[in-house]
Amino acid sequence: xxxxxxxxxxxxxxxxxxxxxxxxxxxxxxxxxxxxxxxxxxxxxxxxxxxxxxxxxxxxxxxxxxxxxxxxxxxxxxxxxxxxxxxxxxxxxxxxxxxxxxxxxxxxxxxxxxxxxxxxxxxxxxxxxxxxxxxxxxxxxxxxxxxxxxxxxxxxxx
Length: 158
What we know:
It contains one helix and nine strands. By secondary structure, it is mainly beta. The protein has one domain: Jelly Rolls. A five-stranded antiparallel sheet has the order 1-9-3-7-6, with no helix packed on it. It has a four-stranded antiparallel sheet with strand order 2-8-4-5, with no helix packed on it. The N terminus is likely disordered.
């Protein structure tokens, strides 16, 4: 029994010592509809250009979201004024229509890896603008969009 308690205490200590995320923010979207011209904008500062990060997108939607996926347009803004645009497909449901995320009540939370182990090459302020790229406008039932920047642990994640 003592061995079990010692193992549990070690597990709590290891899990509790993880580095906090550099950024963990969400932007609320009106459930009545996300206009294609409306952006969720995030900013963060980088001082250590050698540190690697995982960049993750959080999507919260209601059970009434009408599609199995969500296309988003991502505009990355760099400290030198340059930008880069990406399009990402977030698969929200499996082939049988079951939501892939977890949730409570009517809302479903899902996390998507955008970049793993990325190094930001310049010191300064970065930004990310997220817009939906779906054909329906406004897009209903998306509750919020979030961005997380976590220290890269060298472990592959889904």
